[in-house]
Amino acid sequence: MHRAHHGRVTSADAKPAAATILHVDLDAFFAAVEQRDRPELRGRPVIVGGGDRNARGVVSAASYEARVFGVRSAMPLRTAGALCPQGVFLPVDGAKYSAVSRQVMAILRGFTPLVEPVSIDEAFLDMAGTETLHGPAEEAAKAIKSAIRLEVALSASVGVATTKLVAKVASELRKPDGLVIVQPGTEAAFLAPLPIERLWGVGARSRAVLSEYGVRTIGDLAALPADLLVRRFGNGGPQLAARAVGIDPSPVGDGAATKSVSHEHTFDVDTADWEVIERTLLALSEGVAGRLRASGVKAGTVAIRLRDSDFVTISRQRTLKRPTDLTEPIWRMAVSLVRPEVRGMRVRLLGVGASHLTDREQLALFGAEDGRQRRAVEASDAIRERFGTRAITRARLLDSSVAAPFERDFQKAPDAPRIGSRPPADRDTRAVTARAQDAGIEAEALDTEHPFD
Ligand code: DCP
Ligand code: MG
Fold this sequence. Notes:
Elements (H helix, E strand, L loop, with lengths): L20 E6 L2 H9 L8 E3 L12 E2 L1 H4 L9 H7 L4 E3 L3 H16 L5 E5 L2 E5 L4 H4 L2 H16 L3 E6 L2 H10 L5 E3 L5 H5 L12 H8 L6 H5 L3 H8 L2 H9 L15 E12 L2 H22 L1 E12 L4 E12 L2 H16 L4 E13 H5 L6 H17 L7 H4 L31 H10 L2 E5 L7
Parallel strand pairs: 2-4, 7-8
Antiparallel strand pairs: 1-6, 1-7, 2-3, 5-6, 9-12, 9-13, 10-11, 10-12
Helix pairs in contact: 4-6, 4-16, 11-12, 13-14
Bound molecules: 2'-deoxycytidine-5'-triphosphate and magnesium ion.
């Protein structure tokens, strides 16, 4: 009889782990905030993004009234305008939404210290050990939903399960205002009938491979022979099989364990144009530096990742003279690491990462600060928070085809699960995919010191 010493008990003879993990996701977040603040918009189709049905750009959020017309996030505003002529189009008020986001995260932290924000409007919580305070996780979930309604007048959907993966799938199932509890031991049965698109962490590329085998539901995937998955997905195969039955060992982390941050961009068309490569590195470095600043840490090491048209991938990393959270030094280092490698290569993917993170306060003791540059950067962060990412963009980025990193910069750790040695672009969750269309960039924060494995 074997029982795990730590964490979840997995052996068959043991009692299944309790469902203590919650995934909380606000409903139609940006649109709901606008409807909250302007009662005349309640019950009407509200579309946030651009502020004008004829504007360029995409929909950030659509109220559920607008979704009836087929309007969705990441859809061009003009398409939304055509689908929903009576829609109310509003600009993105990034500062307001991030302030509300912070309020919501604070409410969540009132229920458990183990809160892992995933994006501006969603977080994982682990309620283990809070039962005497909040009762079983189901009760806690209800209390959290009412607290959010009472304190910030918004509605949230919650999934409760034994793993982050299943909780995430569960919260999406009955939106808006949903509460879905998946009892321990029923994870595989819960997932089986759902379309494979719902399986968090399985990207479009993997799905394309799986469709060759007629996989439409998560249950179809669970039924595939293990050796086939290994043949087609390598190291990722076993993890894919595990995810199909709801197994996900990743703990709810409060971000303290984040050891590196990275941003990646896959080009629509592979490029050998050094101008484009340099600009892309700048956009990526800006994203990485923004995330470092948001978490109050500096990086000692910069890493790059480079993939060519033949999918050959290389990583290089080098230590900085002094740790930084500024775009410029990260970009310079990234450029110097990439330059010698690209000769004639058609680049498919570029990544910039930062690791060996240290607390900013710790560093300030050593006086390793460039005051002027810091003040400029902090001013631009403030503007970014007030007006959204696009308000401030370096001249070099202006004519770039690469969008500025999405305004989640100031949020913590947007994270996509990693599946083994995953084929490229395989980590897109629904949320990350949607945003990646907006930003053209994927981001992650990892608990490893090697941003690119
Ligand atoms: N967002 C964005 N661009 C995207 C996707 C999302 O700007 N392509 C922003 C607007 C959303 C917020 O992030 O309101 C949260 O994203 P969600 O995916 O959680 O979408 P919603 O909260 O709007 O709707 P749902 O009720 O489906 O969660
Ligand atoms: Mg949401």
